[in-house]
Amino acid sequence: MTAQPTGVNASPRPAGAPILSVQHIVKVFRNGSEVKAIDDVSFDVNYDEFICIIGPSGCGKSTLLRIVAGLEKADSGQVIFRGAPIAKPSPKITMVFQTFGLLPWKSAMENVELPLEVAGIAKAEAKQRAERYLRMVGLGGFENAYPHDLSGGMRQRVGVARALALGPEVLLLDEPFSALDELTAKSLRVLLLKIWGDPALPTNNFVMVTHNVEEAVMMADRIIVLSPRPGHVVGELRVPLPRPRFEHLRDPLFFQTVDKLMGMLSSTTEEQM
Amino acid sequence: MRGLRLITAVVVLVATYLLGSFFVGQSAVQYVPVYALLSLGRVALVYFIALAVGLGFGILAATSKTAERILVPIFDIGQSVPILGYFPIVLTFLIILFPAGVGNEIGALFLLFTAMEWDIFFGVVGAVKAIPSSVEEAARGYGFSGTNHLRYVVLPAVLPALLSASVLAWNDGWTFDAASEFVQFANSAGQLTTYFVPGLGYFITHSLNMGNLAASWFGVLVMGEIIFISNQLIWHTLQNKVAKHKPLLASVIRDDFQSPLRLRKRFRRIFSFRLRQSGQEVRATNQLSTRVVALIFVATLAFIGFLAYANLPISAVEGFVAALTTPDGQIYNVPLYSLFTIGRLLAAYLTCVAISLLCAVLAVTKKNFYRYFYPLYDLGRSVPYLAVFLPLFVTLHASLPAGFAQEIASFILLLLAMVWYLLFNVVTAARALPTELTEVSAVFRVSGWRRVTDIILPGVLPAFITGSLLAWGGGWNVVIYSEYVQIGQSAPYVLPGLGYLLDNAAYVLGDIPLVVFFLFIMSGIVILLERLVWRRLLKRVERFGVEFN
Predict the structure, then answer these.
(1) pTM higher than 0.90 for the full model?
(2) What's the CATH class of domain A102-167+181-203?
């Protein structure tokens, strides 16, 4: 549909195979009683695709993302990344958190450096790389600021820099803008789309969880719609808008897509508007 | 469920008594149930007084700026000055003032009151101040005022903090029960005058004086059982009831699938941690008036001392200046002895630090940690350490030289007095670390030692410092008790230290100005350490703390 750039140092791509394949995931929480959170969810993420997972609160979308990240284990089903099942977190798949997940006792710089040092990258190079990524997200000059000195938007920029600095192939985003005000969220959406489309970066596959319909339509190539708990896929929507999307936000096609997505969502819940 | 626990408790107590009759001797332990009831009555009575005072003045201080400026410093000083240090002065004064028996009963109640009041007061102030302004505005908007406001907004908001504070107060009350029920003064000829009120604390010390070590330990056991049982039957039940309708702190628990019971436990722990912190904040804002009240407090104490001094029945007094300069006054030893006492506290403190940091790491890394931790914590917290000290010393002294035995007993006493504050704060903080941080360390594969130094330890640091501050406060209080031991008619066993100087001045010399002088020095060190070390550190790290809600 849209011509996606490839990363300069991207690994080889087996023809026809998706980079990430979520297959028949079932997740049950047991704590005295059993609560089924996810019921047989399957979808693929193709190379260079921006995927949004949308669904009402409690549909298990964040849990699903955590299973993809290797943070949680599925009760059955598996996630295949480049042909192999994911069992534990990998530096090839990183995550941006809803409430940023920054270490308050570390400066912006140190927050970005920590995963690099842990991954065995020499201190000097880690420093250089952290600086480069902080500049990229627009935080040049704020390297030594601590999270409590930064605004919410700036904190999330640190979170993005940290997730990208490892050079992952898949970036998972767990409602990354829901703790921010709308204006700040807008500028961060633009930043993320720019990063996703940047051919100089190896990170070209984004999987984002959201409950914001307009946001999903603005950002995704394809939207996976989940039902309320237990979450299962009720449908899939390919967004027909050309990119860059922020030039088409007044387009009738944008509103039609939003309406269509709203329709798919409200067909799954009792709380219709 | 509750009935079953009640029956179990009764069975345990009866079995303990029967075993005691069999092994320790029927005649030695026959009055223990009566003593236990008397102590229980004393602690319960003082608890209700402390509750009324704490609620009344606490709500007043939290709602009126003027009241806050007066009350908070008064209570702050009250809790900064080591209770056991000024107890002899108060007791002497009361004995002079009231007929025999009444004076020392009031003295015992007063000591318990000072052991129990501060937690309750600061808990209430912190909780009232923590009522969200939106709730206050809504209440005002709907025309709540006066009793309605108190009944439907303030009291429900205060309840969880009040319960957490009550647990602490109740345990502290029992701990100090041992020290409050038996006091011996010596006169210049070495003759002892004993003041006691009947109760378990009296039984424990009196049995030792009679040379019956087994009976003394038996008293400690009964006291520990009563503390443990009352915690389980009263406080835990009440806390579980209250935690059910607490909407606060919901965002801390990000896992929707936790069982209600675990959620409740979490609320409880987190809430009491915050209570301590907010109390600290309240205190920190009142520094200037604290100084003024400190002056008034010292002046009052000196005045009481002077009154007592004029009528002192128990000692030949040679005058303040003379006492200071005589070898008995030991004024020259103050700097060195202060260092000894600080060293004793430091040794116990460092051990506590090691234990609590280890537990913090285990709390984060081991899933099963809490299953073992909380029962052990409840059990350990039930040990009435002041009551343990004397029989422990006598037991150790049977095979060790006196000085050595006293050092070890003192170390264990200090450890037991200090470790809970640190453990509680640090483990609660480790537990309350946002799950997001755990996920961050997993996603970015921060593990092993790196995880300890970069994530866990910095995460619990503010709680660690708050806990340290409280631990040192608790430590100073009991170090006085451990450096001077009087058993039977023999000469007292002493360890060189500030506590010894104080006790010697109080119980042997009967020189109240000298007591006030040492008390002044000790409080000075306490306040100096608090202001220069702990508060400063806390201010520094608070900015880097995890936001809990």
Answers:
(1) no
(2) alpha beta
